[in-house]
Amino acid sequence: MLQAAGSDGIRLTMESALTARDRVGVQDFVLLENFTSEAAFIENLRKRFKENLIYTYIGSVLVSVNPYKDLEIYSKQHMERYRGVSFYEVSPHLYAIADNSYRSLRIERKDQCILISGESGAGKTEATKKILQYYAVTCPASDQVETVKDRLLQSNPVLEAFGNAKTLRNDNSSRFGKYMDVQFDYKGAPVGGHILNYLLEKSRVVHQNHGERNFHIFYQLLEGGEDDLLRRLGLEKNPQQYHYLVKGQCARVSSISDKNDWKVVRRALSVINFNDNEVEDLLSIVASVLHLGNVQFAADEQGNAQVTTENQIKYLARLLGVEGSVLREALIHKTIIAKGEELVSPLNLEQAAYARDALAKAVYGRTFSWLVNKINKSLAYKEAECPGWRSATVLGLLDIYGFEVFQHNSFEQFCINYCNEKLQQLFIELTLKSEQEEYESEGIAWEPVQYFNNKIICDLVEEKFKGIISILDEECLRPGDATDMTFLEKLEETVKNHPHFLTHKLADQKTRKSLGREEFRLLHYAGEVTYSVTGFLDKNNDLLFRNLKETMCNSENPIINHCFERTELTDKKRPETAATQFKNSLSKLMEILMSKEPSYIRCIKPNDAKQAGRFDEVLIRHQVKYLGLMENLRVRRAGFAYRRKYEIFLQRYKSLCSETWPMWEGRPHDGVAVLVKHLGYKQEEYKMGRTKIFIRFPKTLFATEDALEI
Ligand code: ATP
Ligand code: MG
């Protein structure tokens, strides 16, 4: 992070640039008198929110409250206002964070990342998009770079069409985690990008809760698709015709225009290099999922499932490029290889429906990953397009699910909350620890801040052999009678004395009442969450019957063919379970982020009604807690807000003291000592380190800056 004030010729003109309205409350929580009081914290947020001031800092962390209305603060003029300007010179904004990271990247040539967190509907994806737009507008341009910028921006509507859905919490909720790298050349122009995706919520393909929808693309296709396209895909316009679209009973959403979005997505697909054939192949898959959902079964005399919807099979065969009869048989039989021999057994009604849904989820989930890959190919830096790109610097944007606590928490919440534990670990490693290390290396005496190190919880989840994921995998692999409940029993045996783990059996009399027999509770860094183990084994296994896999391997749809590789059938090794895959991808993500300099944006959702102007205190207090903002502030206040090399500090402020002006002949350290004494700095306001002066509060520095102005 670039030092905020006084460095590199950046002028602080705070008093003049900010209007009175900008300064409602405090724009940096560090300046709060009563900084340990949560009530004061929330009151400051509220005051500012009422004035449409949705951004406030905690030091260099940006807190953002979703306004749920269009504020006139994202124009080109606003972007220009933040370009190349110091943090405290202008009012808090995500452009300031974006610009600051960009400048560090340019000046210090250090890779950056901006981590955006917050619960569903808090504004993470909007923030990510606004940051990308900021770079697209303010970074140097050329024709080639314009193409790259366009592709970076256009990847969003496509990913959102396939990966976002209307939920009760957010009409455009991202149902996957996303990390996007933007690569810059030595001139600071964006020349490429790369996206990593995490844990798409595949279960939504086959089931939606009341008031929720399937992924946007289904409705966009039905609503916007041209007649002859729909005819080719065998689709009717009405979403009510499709079982996979009727469960949530809300195909239409007032805030969404599927028809317009369809046009946007079609255009975006061509910008990111999809040709007509590829678009047709992709949409064939989308359509095939809808047809799959309409495949019905009836039981014969033996109770075995038979397909009763021949029409659907016909369309599926055409769209997926498979033999209809093979697909039909694969949907109602199961093949197992035992001792080298293939055993085929019929499925009953329930099993056949399960197999059908598993196929729909697998097809959609894998196509999503293929889509990300395809986008990555189009974003990849190409020498021919941007010649002269030598040393890459990279800026990463992480838009990932925040901590989730629902009435009913399952495998998905377990994974998501584990992810947040890892991000908290990263925050500790990158921010708290490094802060303390700097004080040590500078020989600054200070009281180490007590903070909770959540490594113990990460270990509980991910440790080899003893961790929850290991035990879950073990049960998934165990042939025979493994069930969700045997998994819970194993957990109880293995981690029974862990301070962050509890079950009905392990709890004392009083707590026991709040825990069901099929639940376990984790004491996360952000609070307790109770998980029901129901479905854990199934979701972790994520099984697709062998014969369905085989059918897909033979598909003539190039995308499907690419997504289902033959080696899966011949490979003796069991595929990784969902939790282990997630664990491994998170561990890679942590490595990537660890090598970068982080900035943080913490997003807050002001109310559950998605309404402008409503500030629901209870809800906000909850998020302030889960985002760890009070601890953040405590650490920030305990430390020193600013540090500056003696040489630079002296150079900037030497004119304020006759002894140091125009030239100080001695050591810069001594010069600074004379200078701050002259300025009347109080002992508790600063410390002198080996190479730098440390100033505790921003206001001390502001006062000195003001003195320069006079
Ligand atoms: P999820 O975790 O569900 O994906 P999210 O944090 O990504 O949620 P967004 O989709 O970014 O949430 O925001 C939800 C909605 O809130 C947006 O569709 C938009 O209507 C509104 N919104 C968010 N940020 C802003 C903003 N800065 N200005 C105006 N409206 C906003
Ligand atoms: Mg989102």
Any overview of this molecule?
With 710 residues, the chain is an alpha+beta fold. It is 47% helix and 13% strand. The chain has 29 helices and 19 strands. The strands form six sheets. The chain has a seven-stranded mixed β-sheet with strand order 1-2-16-3-12-6-7, sandwiched between helices. A three-stranded antiparallel β-sheet has the order 13-14-15, covered by helices on one side. A hairpin with a 2-residue loop joins strand 1 (55-58) and strand 2 (61-65). The chain is globular, with a radius of gyration of 28 Å. The model is unreliable at 1-17 (pLDDT under 50). Bound molecules: adenosine-5'-triphosphate (ATP) and magnesium ion.
Which key features would you list for this structure?
single chain; alpha+beta; 29 helices; binds magnesium ion; disordered N terminus; 19 strands; 13% strand; seven-stranded mixed beta sheet; binds adenosine-5'-triphosphate; 47% helix; three-stranded antiparallel beta sheet; 710 residues
